[in-house]
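We were asked to recover a plausible sequence for a given structure. The inputs and outputs are reproduced exactly as logged, with field labels preserved.

PROBLEM: sequence recovery
POSITIONS: 213
GIVEN STRUCTURE:
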Protein backbone atom coordinates (compact mmCIF):
# COMPACT_ATOMS: atom_id res chain seq x y z
CA UNK A 1 0.00 0.00 0.00
CA UNK A 2 1.31 3.38 -0.92
CA UNK A 3 1.73 6.19 1.50
CA UNK A 4 -1.15 8.03 -0.05
CA UNK A 5 -3.40 5.00 0.29
CA UNK A 6 -2.34 4.50 3.89
CA UNK A 7 -3.13 8.09 4.65
CA UNK A 8 -6.50 7.76 2.96
CA UNK A 9 -7.22 4.67 5.14
CA UNK A 10 -6.77 6.85 8.24
CA UNK A 11 -3.29 5.62 9.35
CA UNK A 12 0.01 7.44 9.67
CA UNK A 13 2.90 7.16 7.30
CA UNK A 14 5.76 4.96 8.52
CA UNK A 15 8.01 7.94 8.73
CA UNK A 16 5.50 9.64 11.00
CA UNK A 17 5.19 6.53 13.28
CA UNK A 18 8.91 6.20 13.75
CA UNK A 19 9.13 9.88 14.50
CA UNK A 20 6.29 9.66 16.96
CA UNK A 21 7.79 6.65 18.80
CA UNK A 22 11.18 8.30 18.76
CA UNK A 23 9.81 11.43 20.40
CA UNK A 24 8.03 9.32 23.04
CA UNK A 25 11.20 7.38 23.84
CA UNK A 26 13.13 10.59 24.16
CA UNK A 27 10.54 12.00 26.52
CA UNK A 28 10.57 8.83 28.69
CA UNK A 29 14.37 8.75 28.86
CA UNK A 30 14.51 12.37 30.00
CA UNK A 31 11.49 12.31 32.41
CA UNK A 32 12.16 12.98 36.09
CA UNK A 33 10.12 11.21 38.76
CA UNK A 34 8.59 13.44 41.44
CA UNK A 35 9.64 12.22 44.93
CA UNK A 36 7.28 12.55 47.90
CA UNK A 37 8.24 15.26 50.40
CA UNK A 38 10.70 14.13 53.06
CA UNK A 39 9.13 13.80 56.49
CA UNK A 40 11.69 13.65 59.29
CA UNK A 41 11.09 10.88 61.82
CA UNK A 42 9.79 12.04 65.21
CA UNK A 43 12.44 12.64 67.81
CA UNK A 44 12.69 10.22 70.73
CA UNK A 45 12.04 12.99 73.28
CA UNK A 46 9.41 15.14 71.67
CA UNK A 47 8.62 18.34 73.55
CA UNK A 48 4.99 18.72 74.70
CA UNK A 49 2.88 21.47 73.18
CA UNK A 50 3.28 24.90 74.69
CA UNK A 51 -0.27 24.83 76.08
CA UNK A 52 0.46 21.68 78.08
CA UNK A 53 3.58 23.00 79.77
CA UNK A 54 3.18 24.43 83.31
CA UNK A 55 3.78 28.13 83.50
CA UNK A 56 6.36 29.48 85.90
CA UNK A 57 5.09 29.28 89.45
CA UNK A 58 2.32 26.81 88.67
CA UNK A 59 1.94 24.10 91.30
CA UNK A 60 2.87 20.63 90.13
CA UNK A 61 1.39 17.55 91.81
CA UNK A 62 4.31 16.00 93.65
CA UNK A 63 5.01 14.92 97.24
CA UNK A 64 7.06 18.06 97.82
CA UNK A 65 4.25 20.36 96.64
CA UNK A 66 1.46 18.74 98.67
CA UNK A 67 1.05 19.23 102.40
CA UNK A 68 3.45 21.07 104.65
CA UNK A 69 6.76 22.38 103.27
CA UNK A 70 9.94 20.42 103.77
CA UNK A 71 11.73 21.53 106.93
CA UNK A 72 15.07 21.05 105.20
CA UNK A 73 14.35 23.99 102.88
CA UNK A 74 13.96 27.67 103.60
CA UNK A 75 10.34 27.47 102.45
CA UNK A 76 9.30 26.17 105.90
CA UNK A 77 10.46 29.45 107.45
CA UNK A 78 8.73 31.65 104.88
CA UNK A 79 5.22 30.19 104.95
CA UNK A 80 2.84 30.71 107.84
CA UNK A 81 0.17 28.53 109.37
CA UNK A 82 -2.87 29.50 111.44
CA UNK A 83 -2.86 27.66 114.79
CA UNK A 84 -5.56 27.60 117.48
CA UNK A 85 -4.76 26.59 121.07
CA UNK A 86 -7.25 25.94 123.85
CA UNK A 87 -6.22 27.99 126.88
CA UNK A 88 -7.77 28.56 130.31
CA UNK A 89 -9.76 31.78 130.48
CA UNK A 90 -7.68 32.98 133.44
CA UNK A 91 -4.53 32.74 131.34
CA UNK A 92 -6.30 34.44 128.44
CA UNK A 93 -7.18 37.35 130.74
CA UNK A 94 -3.52 37.69 131.77
CA UNK A 95 -2.55 37.42 128.10
CA UNK A 96 -4.78 40.33 127.14
CA UNK A 97 -3.63 42.34 130.13
CA UNK A 98 0.00 41.88 129.07
CA UNK A 99 -0.77 43.13 125.58
CA UNK A 100 -2.58 46.15 127.00
CA UNK A 101 0.28 47.01 129.36
CA UNK A 102 2.85 46.73 126.57
CA UNK A 103 0.77 49.12 124.48
CA UNK A 104 0.48 51.61 127.34
CA UNK A 105 4.11 51.43 128.49
CA UNK A 106 5.99 50.92 125.23
CA UNK A 107 3.52 51.98 122.57
CA UNK A 108 3.77 48.56 120.89
CA UNK A 109 0.78 46.39 120.04
CA UNK A 110 2.17 42.89 120.33
CA UNK A 111 0.56 40.19 118.21
CA UNK A 112 -0.61 36.92 119.71
CA UNK A 113 2.23 35.12 117.95
CA UNK A 114 4.85 37.43 119.43
CA UNK A 115 3.57 36.85 122.97
CA UNK A 116 3.38 33.07 122.56
CA UNK A 117 6.88 32.76 121.14
CA UNK A 118 8.25 35.11 123.83
CA UNK A 119 6.69 32.90 126.51
CA UNK A 120 8.18 29.76 124.97
CA UNK A 121 11.63 31.37 124.79
CA UNK A 122 11.27 32.45 128.43
CA UNK A 123 10.76 28.83 129.55
CA UNK A 124 13.55 27.34 127.43
CA UNK A 125 15.38 24.67 129.42
CA UNK A 126 12.48 24.17 131.86
CA UNK A 127 9.95 22.43 129.63
CA UNK A 128 10.17 19.05 131.38
CA UNK A 129 9.74 20.70 134.78
CA UNK A 130 6.64 22.54 133.54
CA UNK A 131 5.23 19.25 132.24
CA UNK A 132 5.79 17.53 135.60
CA UNK A 133 4.07 20.36 137.46
CA UNK A 134 1.05 20.11 135.20
CA UNK A 135 0.80 16.32 135.45
CA UNK A 136 -1.84 15.73 138.15
CA UNK A 137 -0.92 12.09 138.63
CA UNK A 138 2.41 13.16 140.15
CA UNK A 139 0.59 14.49 143.21
CA UNK A 140 -0.87 11.04 143.95
CA UNK A 141 2.31 9.04 143.49
CA UNK A 142 2.60 6.26 146.04
CA UNK A 143 -1.15 6.07 146.61
CA UNK A 144 -3.21 2.98 145.89
CA UNK A 145 -5.47 4.93 143.52
CA UNK A 146 -4.54 8.14 141.74
CA UNK A 147 -7.33 10.63 142.31
CA UNK A 148 -5.96 13.18 139.92
CA UNK A 149 -5.44 11.63 136.54
CA UNK A 150 -5.57 13.26 133.12
CA UNK A 151 -9.14 13.52 131.90
CA UNK A 152 -10.79 12.97 135.29
CA UNK A 153 -12.81 15.75 136.88
CA UNK A 154 -12.08 16.07 140.60
CA UNK A 155 -14.55 18.91 141.20
CA UNK A 156 -17.95 19.67 139.76
CA UNK A 157 -16.70 22.92 138.33
CA UNK A 158 -15.96 22.83 134.65
CA UNK A 159 -12.66 24.15 133.42
CA UNK A 160 -13.40 27.34 131.51
CA UNK A 161 -11.31 27.66 128.39
CA UNK A 162 -11.11 29.86 125.33
CA UNK A 163 -9.35 29.65 122.00
CA UNK A 164 -6.17 31.56 121.27
CA UNK A 165 -5.13 31.99 117.63
CA UNK A 166 -1.53 32.58 116.60
CA UNK A 167 0.37 32.32 113.34
CA UNK A 168 3.81 30.70 113.40
CA UNK A 169 5.76 29.49 110.39
CA UNK A 170 5.68 25.84 109.39
CA UNK A 171 9.22 25.48 110.69
CA UNK A 172 8.37 27.05 114.05
CA UNK A 173 5.31 24.88 114.65
CA UNK A 174 7.33 21.78 113.73
CA UNK A 175 9.91 22.66 116.40
CA UNK A 176 7.17 23.44 118.94
CA UNK A 177 5.61 20.02 118.37
CA UNK A 178 8.96 18.31 118.87
CA UNK A 179 9.48 20.21 122.14
CA UNK A 180 6.15 19.38 123.78
CA UNK A 181 6.34 15.75 122.71
CA UNK A 182 9.87 15.39 124.12
CA UNK A 183 8.81 17.08 127.37
CA UNK A 184 5.79 14.73 127.58
CA UNK A 185 3.02 17.27 127.51
CA UNK A 186 -0.34 15.71 126.65
CA UNK A 187 -0.84 18.06 123.69
CA UNK A 188 0.26 21.33 122.13
CA UNK A 189 -2.38 23.45 123.88
CA UNK A 190 -1.20 22.24 127.28
CA UNK A 191 2.36 23.19 126.38
CA UNK A 192 1.39 26.68 125.19
CA UNK A 193 -0.74 27.26 128.27
CA UNK A 194 2.06 26.14 130.59
CA UNK A 195 4.61 28.49 129.02
CA UNK A 196 2.15 31.40 129.09
CA UNK A 197 1.26 30.68 132.71
CA UNK A 198 4.95 30.73 133.65
CA UNK A 199 5.67 33.95 131.74
CA UNK A 200 2.69 36.26 132.11
CA UNK A 201 2.42 38.52 135.15
CA UNK A 202 -0.47 37.87 137.55
CA UNK A 203 -3.80 39.43 136.85
CA UNK A 204 -4.20 42.76 138.58
CA UNK A 205 -7.35 43.05 140.68
CA UNK A 206 -9.96 45.34 139.32
CA UNK A 207 -10.52 48.52 141.33
CA UNK A 208 -13.69 48.40 143.40
CA UNK A 209 -16.70 50.13 141.96
CA UNK A 210 -17.70 53.29 143.77
CA UNK A 211 -21.38 53.34 144.46
CA UNK A 212 -23.11 56.58 143.71
CA UNK A 213 -24.92 58.15 146.69
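RECOVERED SEQUENCE:
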Amino acid sequence: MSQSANAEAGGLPPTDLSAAFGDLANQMSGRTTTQPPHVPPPSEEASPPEDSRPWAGQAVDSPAAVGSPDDSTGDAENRFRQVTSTIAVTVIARFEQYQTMEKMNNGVSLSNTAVVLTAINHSAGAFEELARKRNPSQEDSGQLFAIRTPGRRVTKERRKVDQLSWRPTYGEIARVDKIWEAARFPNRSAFVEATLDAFLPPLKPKPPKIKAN
